[in-house]
Design brief:
The chain is α/β, with parallel strands linked by helices and 257 residues long. It has two domains: 9-186 and 222-247, Rossmann fold; 192-220, no CATH class. It has helices at residues 18-29, 41-54, 70-84, 107-131, 155-175, 195-202, 204-214, 223-234; strands spanning 9-12, 33-38, 60-64, 89-92, 137-142, 179-186, 245-248. The chain has a seven-stranded parallel beta sheet, with helices on both faces. Helix 1 packs across helix 8 and helix 4 packs parallel to helix 5. The structure holds NADP nicotinamide-adenine-dinucleotide phosphate. NADP nicotinamide-adenine-dinucleotide phosphate (NAP) binds next to helix 1, strand 2, helix 4 and helix 6.
């Protein structure tokens, strides 16, 4: 299927590894131009170098920037506007489920989770709306199945991801017909160095049992399996899809037999 993404100007927050990197690679392989951010400039530069090796003729911008910081995010969008004069597609991917297993996390931890999972999304979308005078384009948020149901994930993370879904749906209603807004709810996605990699290293048997007993597909998802859906939703092939939250979880939300 030709997604017709060539030369589209795409922003991806948190694009140096994991799901964000798969999304960046997916857009680049379709010939899109991509601006990516992450906090650690050293690893971002390494990512940029390897992307340039893989996609030598690509137009890539990268910024060491914390998506939870509104001023930083604003500067990033100003720089992108200077270079590209606009953006067509925005992917708000930053988020983190690392937390504690208390019923209700400490106030400090709860605020941290809201900041990294929700505030980051709000900042990115606020800047897209500020710099997009024509109000045309596509936004995609990366939420989680933990924002749809109580699966036993940390409460703060689950609440923050539910808020991202609410943000996505409200914006979809208010920004139509010019801007389509959708959301992805991934299940368990493995990537080297990611949160599941850390959990496997600390207790491989427990994690194998969780996957075996809770995911009908009996495996982790891959970052590419999330990126494929993001690319489709961001493309003109999804021109009648807005306000959706697409579950990509190997069947976990419908439950195991
Ligand atoms: N993996 C899963 O099983 C899973 C399941 C459901 C939903 N999700 C969601 O999918 C998204 C990506 O998850 P992932 O597992 O791919 O994460 P990951 O492997 O930890 O990668 C996160 C990426 O975001 C960057 N990042 C983190 N905080 C940032 C910030 N404040 N500002 C800018 N960049 C930041 C990281 O680089 P730096 O650390 O250098 O900033 C990295 O590039 C998250 O929203 C997560 O909640 C993941």
């Amino acid at each position: 299927m030709n997604l017709n993404l060539k030369n589209k100007r795409v922003f991806v927050s948190g694009g140096s590894k994991g799901i964000g990197l798969a999304i960046v690679r997916g857009f680049l392989s379709e010939g899109a131009r991509v601006a990516l951010t992450s906090r650690n400039l050293e690893s971002l530069e390494l990512t940029y170098k390897s992307l340039k090796e893989e996609f030598p003729n690509s137009d890539i911008l990268y910024f060491g920037s914390d998506a939870t910081d509104a001023k930083n995010t604003s500067k990033v969008f100003d720089s992108i506007m200077n270079e590209w004069k606009g953006l067509d597609i925005v992917i708000s991917n930053v988020g983190d489920g690392r937390s504690t297993q208390e019923v209700l996390q400490s106030e400090e931890q709860f605020d941290r989770s809201l900041k990294i999972n929700l505030k980051s999304a709000e900042n990115v979308v606020r800047e897209f709306l500020r710099t997009n005078s024509e109000k045309i384009g596509s936004i995609c948020f990366i939420s989680s199945i933990t924002g749809l149901e109580a699966f036993g994930a940390p409460t703060d993370y689950s609440v923050a991801k539910a808020a991202v879904i609410a943000l996505s749906k409200n914006l979809a209603r208010k920004l139509a017909p010019g801007i389509r807004v959708n959301c992805i709810a991934p299940g368990n996605v493995y990537s080297p160095g990611g949160s599941w990699d850390e959990k496997i290293k600390s207790d491989p048997k427990r994690i194998a049992s969780i996957i075996e007993n809770t995911v009908p597909m009996k495996r982790f998802g891959t970052p590419d399996e999330i990126a494929n859906v993001v690319l489709f939703l961001s493309s003109e092939k999804a021109s009648f899809i807005t306000g959706s939250c697409v579950v990509v979880d190997g069947g976990q939300t419908v439950g195991n037999h």
